[in-house]
Automatic annotation (TrEMBL):
Record has Repeat as a keyword: yes
Assigned protein family: Belongs to the TTC38 family.
Organism listed in the record: Arachis hypogaea (Peanut)
SUPFAM superfamilies: TPR-like
Alphabetically ordered keywords of this record: Repeat, TPR repeat
Superkingdom per UniProt: Eukaryota
InterPro entries, per database record: TPR-like_helical_dom_sf, TTC38
Keyword Transcription belongs to the record: no
Record-given protein name: Tetratricopeptide repeat protein 38
């Protein structure tokens, strides 16, 4: 029962804290993650209200890892110091995130620990989201689908769940099922950007480019609160549908200028997330050489990751020389210069 220093997060699971504002901030963070919102820093407010809360600290450590590693380490240490008094839910979430962000991480073990959380606490959709992202980078849509299917009975009709179901379905090539799941998600919440994104994937796969553009542009007023990645990625899909639907290149570049690059004008924009979609779009405009360059860049990365730094440096030097010699059409050159 609530009381005696225990309160409940949105999933109905116990957290050791006496602070209602701390719980409110955690719940807001959960919402931001599920909705791909741009205010995930709200988790730091939870620490202002209770800096001893294990759940608040471990979630903050995960959030801060890429933006402020020193503070992330401080949050992780605080979570460890108070772990003995944490609830069972907090301990399992701590275990899964602590291992996920460790230098010795093994992806299979990290996934097992997240699965362990979901077996005990199947309504925690943020743990499911972390697990699905891990599956994506592992190239295992089958495991991603298995996880969401595992918690589906306990989350029937839940907001954001069906976009999470749709994405592994489309990765597995089950387009009809993916479309059905995405549309169910949109019936629950028409502003669910992940369901919108999944449905666009289906329409794009089926070469229904005009339908995809009309659908996404109709959804676009709801994207202003999205993270830099999700906002520019959705517009990347719109631009790609114009490109693959044989629209003039100028229309594609209008999307680039007005909806992707323009994101950088915002004070809270995350540049790396914007550049990812900006570069990806511009490269697609040059499909004849895109694959060759893309594979070379991946080779540089693979060599560096395997410790072959000399070979990676040689290939990178060669790429730079080729870049200097590449001749761009003048009307597109300004877009590359801005990157």
């Amino acid at each position: 029962m609530e009381g005696d220093g225990v309160k409940f997060v949105r999933w109905g699971y116990e957290v050791r804290t006496s602070s209602e504002p701390c719980i409110s901030a955690i719940n807001s963070y959960y919402h931001q993650v599920m909705s791909y919102g741009r205010d995930r820093c709200v988790i730091l407010d939870a620490l202002d209200h209770d800096n001893n809360c294990v759940l608040a600290n471990i979630l903050a450590a995960h959030f801060l890892l890429s933006v402020d590693p020193f503070r992330a380490s401080s949050c992780l240490l605080s979570a460890k110091l108070h772990l003995e008094n944490a609830t069972f839910y907090e301990k399992l979430v701590f275990e899964s995130i602590n291992y996920l962000i460790s230098e010795e991480r093994d992806d299979d073990v990290a996934l097992q620990l997240h699965s362990k959380v979901l077996k005990e606490f199947p309504k925690d959709l943020v743990t499911l989201k972390r697990a699905q992202i891990l599956c994506f980078y592992m190239g295992r849509p089958d495991l991603s689908f298995s996880l969401v299917n595992q918690v589906l009975p306990q989350n029937e009709g839940e907001n954001y769940l069906y976009g999470m179901l749709a994405f592994p379905l489309l990765e597995l090539g089950k387009m009809r099922d993916a479309e059905e799941a995405a549309k169910r998600g949109l019936n629950i919440n028409e502003e669910d950007s992940w369901s919108q994104h999944a449905l666009c994937h289906v329409l794009q796969y089926e070469c229904r480019f005009k339908e995809a553009v009309n659908f996404m542009e109709k959804c676009s007023p709801s994207w202003s609160s999205l993270s830099s990645f999700m906002l520019t990625h959705n517009w990347w899909h719109v631009a790609l549908c114009y490109l693959e639907g044989s629209a003039p290149n100028q229309r594609v570049l209008e999307v680039y200028d007005n909806h992707i690059w323009k994101e950088l004008d915002k004070t809270d924009a995350h540049g790396a997330e914007v550049y990812l979609n900006a570069v990806g779009l511009l490269l697609r405009l040059y499909a004849n050489w895109y694959l060759e360059w893309h594979l070379d860049v991946l080779t540089v990365w693979a060599l560096a990751k395997s410790g072959k730094f000399s070979e990676a440096a040689d290939l990178l030097k060669g790429l730079k020389e080729r870049w200097k010699c590449f001749i761009f059409p003048k009307k597109y050159l300004r877009h590359y210069n801005r990157i």
